[in-house]
Specification:
Blueprint: E1 4-7, E2 10-13, E3 19-25, E4 30-36, E5 40-44, H1 46-86, H2 88-93
Amino acid sequence: MNTDHEVGGLKTPLDSSRFDITLTEDEIGNLIVFSVNSDCQMKLTYEDARTLAIRIISAANRAEIRSNLKRNSMKLSRTSEAETRSGWFHQAFAK
């Protein structure tokens, strides 16, 4: 599992001790409490927590797909340039 995340284009280690997720109960019912650095705290119902998790996972998947597509398109363009330069047509008619 990758423990790095990117902030402003720089990869930094993800410190899991900064995040805390607990299950608490109030007068209404169960709440999931998500805390970051003990400065920010979100109290979510299980429906809201599930929605947030799905959105985070979807965003991570989109980012991974974009990264892979960009990397693969760069590989393909380098490969096609090399094939163009070394192809028989280029060799026969190169000046």
